[in-house]
């Protein structure tokens, strides 16, 4: 059996020890870690970020971000809608936002320049919440752990039959194959799923689903050259926009029902 065949067997063997489950959209998910472990990791990471980053004191912006978040949280599936989500606005000009296990959300002030409406801000925060509810952090850590186990087993098998130079070349090729063939596409699938979940949440909260594609147009315009999609951890901007536009029609009836039932959200975007 050739070295890459044996390594493939090793990767498969490592994969069978991973807990199998489904994501909110029905995609097969691999999770090695418990929810409590991920919540603890999220809380520690959040505390570290709050120590390293300057926290905004702009009360109007803080209230605005909190208002949009509260609307989204109220529309989440149980048990997430019944939990208290901690929100922090950071005084940083970077267009960035994140959410962590344990109901932690961070938004950078620079994102408010890119998300030009409350609907677009809802798309950002909804997307990040989607990562948490789909347990993408758990999957990401699990896939990296499984890949690491496979690499170690493959190295042991290769070393038993081949000289050091051949083993080194084989492991380098395997490392690139794991990175490009497993870890990066996995992350792209997470991003696409979080886009879809975010649109679902914003529609249920009364925010216009069409704003999601508009947001990513703004994001694409604000960034420089992008890496090829197959080498990126994110879908290309055009792929993402097209997917959001296709999904928009599915979310629009929910949005219209929400607006008919309770009216438009009343979160007020601060003037510049």
TrEMBL record:
The keyword Metal-binding applies. GO terms for cellular component: membrane. It comes from the Bacteria. CDD domains: M48C_Oma1_like (cd07331). GO terms for biological process: proteolysis involved in protein catabolic process. The keyword tRNA processing does not apply. Its cofactor is Zn(2+). Pfam families: Peptidase_M48. Keywords: Hydrolase, Metal-binding, Metalloprotease, Protease, Zinc. Residues 63-247 form the Peptidase M48 domain. Signal peptide: none annotated. One of its GO terms (molecular function) is metalloendopeptidase activity. Binds 1 zinc ion per subunit. Belongs to the peptidase M48 family. This is Peptidase M48 domain-containing protein. It comes from Pseudidiomarina salinarum. The lineage of its organism: Bacteria, Pseudomonadati, Pseudomonadota, Gammaproteobacteria, Alteromonadales.
């Amino acid at each position: 059996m050739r070295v890459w065949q044996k390594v493939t067997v090793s990767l498969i063997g490592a994969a069978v020890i991973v807990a199998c489950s489904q994501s909110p959209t029905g995609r097969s998910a691999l999770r090695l870690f418990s929810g409590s472990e991920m919540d603890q990791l999220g809380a520690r990471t959040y505390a570290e970020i709050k120590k390293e980053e300057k926290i905004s004191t702009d009360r109007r912006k803080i209230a605005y971000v909190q208002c949009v978040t509260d609307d989204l949280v109220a529309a989440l599936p149980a048990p997430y809608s019944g939990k208290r989500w901690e929100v922090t606005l950071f005084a940083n000009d970077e267009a960035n936002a994140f959410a962590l296990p344990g109901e932690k959300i961070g938004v950078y002030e620079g994102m408010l320049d890119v998300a030009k409406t409350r609907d677009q801000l809802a798309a950002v925060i909804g997307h990040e919440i989607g990562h948490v509810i789909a347990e993408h952090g758990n999957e990401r850590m699990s896939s990296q752990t499984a890949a690491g186990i496979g690499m170690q087993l493959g190295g042991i098998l290769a070393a038993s039959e081949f000289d050091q130079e051949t083993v080194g070349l084989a492991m380098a090729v395997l490392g690139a194959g794991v990175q490009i063939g497993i870890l990066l596409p996995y992350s792209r699938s997470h991003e696409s799923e979080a886009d879809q979940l975010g649109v679902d949440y914003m529609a249920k909260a009364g925010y216009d689903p069409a704003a999601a594609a508009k947001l990513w147009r703004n994001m694409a315009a604000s960034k420089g050259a992008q890496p090829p999609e197959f080498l990126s951890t994110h879908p290309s901007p055009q792929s993402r926009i097209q997917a959001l536009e296709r999904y928009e029609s599915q979310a629009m009836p929910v949005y219209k029902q929400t607006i008919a039932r309770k009216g438009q959200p009343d979160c007020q975007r601060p003037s510049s």
